[in-house]
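Is this the right way to post structure tokens for a design question? Let me know if I should format differently. Anyway, here goes:
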């Protein structure tokens, strides 16, 4: 609960009409896109997705997806035939430095294609970076944005661009502002296990932050599914957990899990030094709207339960 926000009554049970399996098109089938795709496929959805290499295309096809190689800096929108047929569109390609969102330069063509097609739902995966530095204050979706870095500025421009694009289309549209994403295969546990002990300057800056919003990929999936159950245009949700803890604490916890079982994988102690903090884009991102309006009950409200579940899954695999 964010200090300063009045306590709200528990949400009414949300009507959750089952979403009939549709046709999802994922632009950028990366970590989140793949997680979502695998689950929709298992529920009978038709899923199409893009990636940037032939090797990845083969991997996605093995899952049962209809995959295409699409490099937004080079490929042509007209080659993306799934756009004409998809009922759901998940945009997961980040803005490109110096270019911005690669799809929005074809605004008119894209709008026409979507208007002529079957699209009912669109979701743009954004980032909490759009809030910039808020001096550690709690921020909700109504907080003024202050994107400072180049990538945050491009991200905010992309949000605006997608919202403009859907303005004249009759469909549900959502912007999900994600915290740092982790999950099986991408977490502090995996970083330690891979022995990545030297940090880039960007990582060092992140390491020194007092508050970092993060979210387990399973909870992003929950948010996406919940958004499909409501009709809503231009809605923005923060998708973060309840615990904006320092990254150093997350690594210390991951290290403690690993040390107990695999002492050889212990991390360089200098890595978890939390005394020398630089304040950078500090804020605590509130997830109240996600819980109240979408009725999402987080599976992993803290990095502790999230990392513990990833660690437990290692043990299951290793047995
Ligand atoms: N990682 C985080 O902590 C974090 C936090 C907040 C928001 N986000 C954003 O949330 C979204 C989903 O995150 P994620 O971790 O799932 O991202 P990801 O794993 O990096 O996936 C990004 C996808 O975009 C594709 N892509 C990249 N550049 C492209 C280009 N020029 N043309 C076409 N496709 C391109 C990639 O293709 P390939 O599959 O071929 O590589 C990949 O499928 C992304 O927009 C990400 O920036 C991430």
């Amino acid at each position: 609960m964010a200090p300063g926000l009045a306590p709200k009554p528990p949400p009414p049970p949300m009507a959750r009409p089952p979403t009939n399996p549709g046709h999802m098109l994922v632009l950028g089938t990366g970590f989140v896109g793949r997680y979502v795709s695998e689950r929709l496929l298992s529920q009978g959805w038709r899923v199409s997705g893009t990636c940037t290499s032939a090797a990845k295309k083969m991997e996605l096809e093995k899952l049962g997806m209809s995959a295409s190689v699409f490099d937004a800096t080079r490929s042509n929108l007209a080659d993306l035939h799934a756009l004409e047929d998809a009922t759901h569109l998940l945009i997961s390609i980040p803005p490109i430095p110096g270019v911005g969102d690669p799809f929005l330069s074809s605004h008119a063509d894209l709008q026409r294609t979507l208007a002529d097609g079957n699209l009912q739902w669109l979701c743009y995966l954004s980032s909490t970076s759009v809030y910039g530095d808020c001096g550690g204050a709690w921020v909700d979706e109504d907080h003024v944005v202050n994107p400072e870095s180049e990538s945050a500025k491009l991200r905010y421009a992309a949000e605006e661009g997608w919202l403009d694009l859907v303005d004249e289309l009759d469909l549900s549209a959502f912007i999900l502002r994600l915290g740092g994403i982790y999950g099986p295969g991408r977490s502090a546990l995996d970083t330690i296990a891979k022995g990545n002990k030297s940090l880039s300057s960007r990582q060092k800056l992140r390491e020194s932050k007092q508050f970092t919003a993060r979210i387990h990929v399973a909870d992003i999936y929950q948010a996406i599914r919940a958004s499909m159950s409501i009709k809503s245009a231009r809605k923005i949700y923060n998708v973060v957990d309840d615990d904006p803890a320092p990254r150093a604490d997350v690594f210390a916890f991951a290290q403690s899990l690993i040390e107990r079982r695999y002492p050889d994988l212990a991390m360089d102690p200098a890595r978890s030094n939390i005394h020398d903090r630089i304040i950078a884009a500090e804020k605590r991102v509130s997830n109240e709207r996600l819980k109240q309006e979408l009725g999402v009950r987080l599976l992993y409200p803290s990095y502790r339960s999230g990392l513990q579940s990833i660690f437990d899954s290692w043990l299951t695999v290793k047995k």
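Format looks fine. Someone answered above. Worth noting: The chain is about 35% helix and 15% strand. Residues 1-17, 272-279 have pLDDT under 50 and may be disordered.
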